[in-house]
Amino acid sequence: MTAMQIVFILTAVVTLFAALRVVTTPNMIHAALWLIVALFGVAVFYLLLSASFLAMAQIIVYIGAIAILMMFVIMLTRREMRDRGPQTGPQWKWAAILSALLFGGLVWMVKSVSLPASPVAEVPESSIADLGRALVSPNGFVIPFEVASVLLLAALIGAVYVAWTRRNS
Amino acid sequence: MGILSQPIGVIAEWLRNLFLGWGLSEGLTTVLLYLIGAGVLATLVQVWVIFLIWFERKIIGRFQDRLGPNRVGPYGLLQPFADLIKIITKEVIIPRDADKAVYLLGPIIMDAGVLAIWAVIPLMPMVGMDVNVAALYTIAVGAFATLGILMAGWASNNKFALLSAFRTVAQMISYEVPTVLALLIPVMLAGTMSLQGIVEAQHVWYIVFAPLAFVIYFIASVAEVGRTPFDLLEAESEIVAGFHIEYSGMVFAIFYVGDFLHAFTIGALGAVLFLGGWRGPGAETFPLLGLLYLWIKAFLVYFLVVWARGSLPRVRIDQMMDFSWKFLTPLALILLVVAAVLDHFVMGFGMWGRALSHFAANVVIAVLTLRYLDHYDKVRESKRRMVAQPGQYPVARPPVPVETSTEAAS
Amino acid sequence: MIPLDWYLIVAAALFAIGLFGVLSRKNAVAILMGVELMLNAVNINLLAFWRYRAPTEPVGMAFAVIVFAVAAAEVAVGLALFIAVYRRFNSVVADDINLMKW
Asked: What is the DSSP letter of B191?
């Protein structure tokens, strides 16, 4: 077992434990904090996959913006800070069974095909620059990129409109 | 390789041989060396805060026409140590209804987020982790400082602390946008996100290329650190003390240290991005000289932060948000686009030609911005005149006549 | 080196946990958190396949970047909706928001 594998297993254990706490803990703020731990674990996976740019983007976008906004909304939509009682609906048993079935099926599928044990090549030094060029080149991903930009703009305007309260009403 | 030309290299080599001599394996030795390096760096910069505290109190004292600390030791230099002893001996109080784990984690995460920035700062030539996404990394770990304050504000179970946490989120997320946009300009000019690469590319300091970007970076970073005039998150007169209202003793001290260190860290980052980092005469041959240069430049920017604190009043929260979204962000966007387009055309003009054309573009943008602000001010002023007649400013209204209430009663 | 299927299994577990969260939680923000976990699992898969199959082409990274953008847009609109719903119903529990149910 190499050092990389030890790091992988530790990260996987922490990430999955945090993810489990996200979906089970009754306290919503704690759920958001556990979500941050899980997202950070995913960023470590990106680093292990030598996608350092995406690892940083993951921390900025998910932890710096999404998770913090979620905590913000949780604090805003609570009359009292403490959540009492179970936070799961009566359907949780069915949900658990379905999730377990899905997990079992996916693992069976992964195990039934032969997958490479090591990458076919090293990541080139210029991978970040290549990504940048691919995102704006007409032969690459310029259309998805532009559509994503328009989507973000629409989401921005939509979010402002939906959450807006008219002052005089 | 002598101790003067590669000080860190020599020490690391000596330690490596020492560990290998003890019979440790190659991999373990590397891990140990990294840990020692991180530990030494983190300790040194935190100890440095002791001096910063003295410096800031002294300078603020002078700004306010007093002497500042001058009793303990020469020039009051030992005052921070006395404070340190006092704060260590204080009791750490945890409110009964506080969320204990989150309450204690808050300051640690805030401080760790600030310390983590130091991992990528190029202290001298050849020293410092050369990460190829370092510029992005500094923004990413900056998010943890926000997170720490948010956690502290929530876990204290105090309404003032919570209000402060709300303000923190609004302020830091808003000011992150201009910070990132201003930071993109040096990244674009150098063509790399590695901070070491940015320093090496600065044959001419980037403050010549982009003085406006430096100003935006400076203002937005001060807001992100939450220093006066943007210290809304700990406004004493409005929300008592903000997120650290319930903290005491050593747990509070961690916040205190994190705050000072954050201010100095933005100084160091500003020096690296815009003031040439370790660049200076003789820095290439004697790296320790480079460290000195970086420290002087970082100190200069830090002094600007203290200066702003000493001379500006606190802004209102709506003014602060307006300033970020309606002024800094559009200006940073314009600067970014202009710099990108201009750089495409002046690439072949040589070092100084490129620098001066960027500088000229910045001057033009600055003049246009000031003209626009002037115009905006006049328009607003004339609108205000239309509402309020001369001599009748809409100040406090006279009290409502009593008749209305009696009428309602009858 | 780490075998590819380790990544895939971790991603599958993360996806299943996220799905459980989406299906079982009552609070709308918690449901959104489950969705985020699922999107992250997908991103791990995309990047793992990119790293092991085509590391010289930026395809996998480009996919992941687009997923980031979509996730950010989704959270922005979703959270704005929750604020609006909270103003109206004084609750963000999914069961309470049943005006259209009959």
From this structure: T
Say if the Cβ atoms of C25 and A62 lie within 8 Å.
no
CB atoms within 10 A of CB A7: 14
Residue with tokens 């309602």: B408
C81–A162 CB contact, under 8 Å: yes
Q: Name the one residue in this structure whose structure tokens are 């089970």.
A: A24
Whether chain A has a CB inside 8 Å of the CB on B187: the answer is no
Distances from the Cα of A8 to the Cα of A2, A11, C15, angstroms: 10, 5, 18
B277: left (phi over 0), alpha (psi -120 to 50) or beta: left
Contact A75 B131 (CB under 8 A): no
Q: Which residues contact B300 (CB under 8 A, 6 or more apart)?
A: B267, B271, B275
Alpha-carbon gap, residue B73 to B326, rounded angstroms: 48
Q: Dihedral, CA atoms, B319, B323, B325, B326, nearest 10 degrees?
A: 100
User: Can you tell me the ipTM of this complex?
Assistant: 0.86
Please answer whether residues B254 and B247 qualify as being in contact, where contact means their C-beta atoms are separated by less than 8 angstroms. no
Distance, in Å, from the CA atom of B67 to the CA atom of B77, rounded to the nearest integer, reads 13
Please give the average per-residue pLDDT across B402-407, as a whole number. Answer: 48
Tell me the per-residue pLDDT of B227-260, one tens digit each, with 9 for 90 and over.
778 777 777 677 777 777 788 888 888 888 888 8
Q: What are phi and psi of B164, to 5 degrees?
A: -65, -40
| Distance separating the N- and C-terminal Cα atoms of chain A | 66
CA-nearest residue to A116 within chain C is C4
Which residues of chain C carry a pLDDT beneath 70? 94, 102
**Cβ neighbours, 10 Å, residue B199:** 27
- Of the candidates B122, B162, B324, B97, the one whose C-alpha atom is nearest the C-alpha of residue B229 is B324
How far apart are the CA of A60 and the nearest CA of chain B, in angstroms? 5
pTM for the structure as a whole? 0.84
- pLDDT tens digits for range B116-173: 888 888 877 666 667 778 888 888 888 888 888 888 888 887 788 888 888 887 888 8
Cβ atoms of residues C30 and C21 within 8 Å: yes
- The backbone torsions φ and ψ at residue A161, rounded to the nearest 5 degrees and listed phi first, read -65, -45
Q: Which domains does chain C have, with CATH numbers?
A: 4-96 (1.10.287.3510)
- Do chains C and B meet with 3 or more Cβ pairs nearer than 8 Å? no
User: According to the model, what pLDDT value does residue B6 have?
Assistant: 67
Residues 79-98 of C with CB under 8 A from A: 79-84, 86-87, 90, 92, 94-95
The span from the CA of B264 to the CA of B260, in Å, is 6
CB contact under 8 A, B150 and A33: no
Between A and C, how many residue pairs show a Cβ–Cβ distance under 8 A? 261
Task: Check if the beta carbon of residue A92 is closer than 8 Å to that of residue B189.
Answer: no
User: Residue B132 and residue A128: Cβ atoms within 8 Å?
Assistant: yes
Structure tokens at B225: 């650190």
Inter-chain CB proximity A30 and B102 less than 8 Å: yes
